[in-house]
Amino acid sequence: MSIETLVHELRKIQADSTVFYQRLRQYHWNVRGRRFLALHSKFEELYESWAEIIDEVAEAVVILGETPLTTLRAVLHEASLEEDEEVPAAEEMIRRTAADLAVLVARFNEVAAEAGDGRAANLLEGIRDEQQKELWMLRAMLAVRPHLVQGEGP
Ligand SMILES: [Fe+2]
User: Fold this and answer.
1) Relative to the CA of 137, which of 45, 94, 100, 115 has its CA 20 to 30 Å away?
2) How many Å lie between the centroid of ligand 1 and the Cα of residue 81?
3) Taken in order 88, 37, 13, 116, is the CA torsion positive or negative?
4) pLDDT at position 154, please?
5) Structural domains of the chain sorted by starting position, each given as residue range(s) with its CATH number in brackets
6) What is the spatial distance between Cα 154 and Cα 142, in angstroms, rounded to a whole number?
7) Quick one: angle between helices 36-63 and 3-30, nearest 10?
8) Residue 41 C-alpha to ligand 1 middle, in angstroms?
9) Confidence of residue 152 (pLDDT cuts 50, 70, 90)
10) What is the 3-state secondary structure (H, E, C) of 112-150?
């Protein structure tokens, strides 16, 4: 893709990553239930990773000679992921996080494949690989364990 298109795609990734980051923060704050400690920590670990990812993606735009998104207004305008204004149950938080992460991983993969710029492609592939592992772990948390007594779910 052209540099212009790559910059556009990176800004969109920056926007979606920022919306996802805020979702992780709100889940970190609001999660409740028996899995509180594990999930509170997991969401924190994830939003710390995503703060770094946002920084790397924004700086990739700067390295290409352009300006990344600078306001939350621009972020919301460019984002395709939705903010979460609800406080869902813990299990649903994991499900929604995994769904958004799957969208992001697919986007990183697509843009990396078409980037036509080695540095940007390497960056996006590295994030994709790392976050695919997170996606696996989230999905593993969602798996129904058949030995559980009914009503004893997560
Ligand atoms: Fe905290």
Assistant:
1) 115
2) 23
3) negative
4) 46
5) 3-142 (1.20.1260.10)
6) 9
7) 160
8) 8
9) very low
10) HHHCCCHHHHHHHHHHHHHHHHHHHHHHHHHCCCCCCCC
Q: What would the mean pLDDT of 67-77 be, rounded to a whole number?
A: 98
CA 126 to centroid of ligand 1, rounded, Å = 26
44 CA distance to ligand 1 middle (Å)? 7
8 Å CB contact between 114 and 141: no
**Sign of the C-alpha dihedral computed for residues 60, 105, 6 and 79 taken in this order:** negative
How far apart are the CA of 149 and the centre of ligand 1, in A? 33
Q: Which amino acid is present at 139?
A: R
When pLDDT is averaged across residues 96-116 and rounded to a whole number, the result is: 96
Report whether 3 contacts 57 (CB < 8 A). Answer: no
CB 10 within 8 A of CB 121: no
Q: How far is the CA of 22 from the centre of ligand 1 (A)?
A: 13
